[in-house]
Specification:
215 residues, alpha+beta, Arc Repressor Mutant, subunit A, Beta-Lactamase, 7 helices, 8 strands, 21% strand, DNA-binding, Tscrpt_reg_IclR_N
């Protein structure tokens, strides 16, 4: 006879983690109903999950009552690839302010590219947000393909990768691989509004310089 005593807690934990992943991947804050629809669960179940996550500071609500990731996640993420974050952050900050674009670091997590840290430019009129925890497959988006180069060891046609609207419609990205000894495969990237007047190859060269300095 199978002991199912641990099944419910494990299922609840899995649902809570999935809820955080959904919120991390959403373009905007979600209502309870929207989150329930994306999870395929009844609102009452999602409400209990959210209350638990709120209690740990992992989920918070905006003034309209919609859900977004909480500040508690920053505490949990602080030691994730801490040395890599420490090495990349100065370069990300310089890139963001120099190019006027949000610069970010992604790392390999199983078969996905996950944003670890991002920096928004100070002077930009309207910066594009790239929230830590956002994830996408390695074959979608410039950062994923840049990371995949390090995994497969297959060189690309260029030293940088580009994407246009693959992960989020209306947004474009330029990324380069970042290989640091002792750290997971990673990439440095910037994101901007599709259609902006930018010199993509020049951005790629600048990212490559930043990646070299990060090593």
């Amino acid at each position: 006879m199978t002991d199912g005593s641990a099944a419910a807690p494990l299922q609840t934990l899995s649902r809570g983690i999935t809820a955080l992943e959904v919120l991390a991947g959403a373009d905007t804050a979600l209502s309870i109903g929207q989150l329930a629809a994306r999870l395929g669960l009844h609102r009452s179940i999602v409400y209990r999950i959210v209350r638990t996550l709120e209690g740990h500071g992992l989920v918070s609500r905006d003034p309209a009552g919609d859900l977004k990731l909480g500040a508690g996640l920053a505490t949990l993420a602080r030691n994730v690839s801490r040395d890599l974050q420490t090495a990349a952050l100065p370069e990300l900050t310089t890139l963001a302010h120099e190019l006027g674009m949000t610069a970010f670091l992604v790392v390999l997590d199983q078969n996905e590219a996950v944003t670890l840290v991002s920096v928004e430019p100070r002077a930009a009129f309207a910066a594009v947000a790239q929230r830590p925890g956002t994830r996408h497959p390695l074959d979608q988006g410039a950062p994923g393909r840049a990371v995949r180069r390090l995994v497969t060891r297959v060189p690309g046609e260029r030293f940088y990768e580009t994407s246009h609207g693959e992960v989020i419609p209306g947004l474009s990205c330029v990324a380069v691989p970042l290989e640091v000894p002792g750290q997971p495969p990673a990439a440095l990237a910037v994101v901007y509004l599709t259609g902006a007047d930018v010199e993509v190859e020049a951005i790629g060269r600048r990212l490559a310089q930043a990646a070299h300095r990060t090593r």
